[in-house]
Structures are given as structure tokens and as C-alpha cells.
Amino acid sequence: MTAVLCPSFYESAVQFPTADEKELAKSWVEAHSCHAWRNGWGLSNYLLNVQIVSLPNLRIIDFSYGHTGSTHNVSAWQETFIAQNHDDILKDGEFIWADSTYPVRVFIH
Fold first, then answer.
1. Which of 12, 76, 91, 103 makes the best surface tag, with the fewest CB within 10 Å?
2. Exposed (0-12), middle (13-18) or buried (19+): which is 83, by Cβ within 10 Å?
């Protein structure tokens, strides 16, 4: 998590398209839709939902991946090792912080 949030990672891993790459993308959009949508060259419907469980210092302690962006967070959470083995991992009174979209459980707050 810390590595992904580091500006140097973003600078080295993310590259915006060149003018030629944009033109190829625009041609693809036009060929697969219509001329009016040609300038919409960036696609955001191919997202992945990666569920990360981390410590407050952002050290990743568990994760699940491979879910499409439309997968609800709870479904991705249920694929984590901690969710599947919470009785063995969390001691009495211990829990994982989560937002209000997650179901209320003894081990999720």
C-alpha cells in the first residue's frame, strides 16, 4: 500500500498516452460506437476491486484480488484469508475496522 501511494511509483508506473496512442484509441471508440463518442478515448469500465486489509501504518496484512470493479466490497472482503479464518486469527475482543457498507459482525466494526 505504501509503495502504491508513493509518488515515485506513480511517476514510474503510470504513463499517459502519446498523441499517436490517443488517436488509435479514438479510432477504436469510433469504430465500436459512433463518431459522436470519438473523443471519449479513456475507458474506466475495466476496473478491478482489490480488497486490502492493512495496519494503521499501511502495511498490508491481507488482500483479495481478481474481482471486477462492479463487485461489491463485501464480496471482495469475503475472499480475504482473515474473513474466511477470523476465528483462528482474531483473539476474543479483536476486530477489523470497516465502513458501514460491511455487515455488522463481532469481528467487523
1. 91
2. buried
